[in-house]
Amino acid sequence: MPDFSHEALHHPGLVAGVDEAGRGPLAGPVVAAAVILRAHDCPDGLNDSKQLSAKKRAMLEGEIKARALCWGVGIATVEEIDEINILWATMLAMTRAVEALGPDVAHILVDGNRCPNWRWASTAIVEGDAKCLSIAAASILAKEERDRMMIAAAADYPGYGWETNKGYGSAKHMAALREHGPTPLHRRSFAPVAQLTLL
Question: pTM of the prediction?
């Protein structure tokens, strides 16, 4: 289970955890979140969002937002993903999430193997959402925010199954893509979508 050992390495000062959701889907934005937790008032059960049930994630999202020192969300649009590619769009969403925090941070812990080119001191932690409580909290906020966006988008573009697949390339999603073609929310720089636009 994640703990506060990584945050403790970088005290004194405010330490934020950052994670993203939505790098792999064929449709929708990429969403990042940044969280500064209070060590003495941390919700129980924080973990990598992929290891939690939808019910548990939703409950923890509310607790994180209520009890964290601060939190922020950043989004990179489909247009930005197609223009600068998914890696740099992810870095852009992370930067926007940190900028949305409010107070400045002394250090940022980033899930993954690289950090954005930004003005803050930071450390990349592979599988950080399973090791670091702040990153785990950020992973929950990012996934919950993006899931809501894709469920809402499913009402505008029915048939692709986004209410369940959240834009990932499930069998239902791929079948709808072949039948109806891409929507404005599809990432045309992603190979499965690009191939269909050439047909």
Answer: 0.95
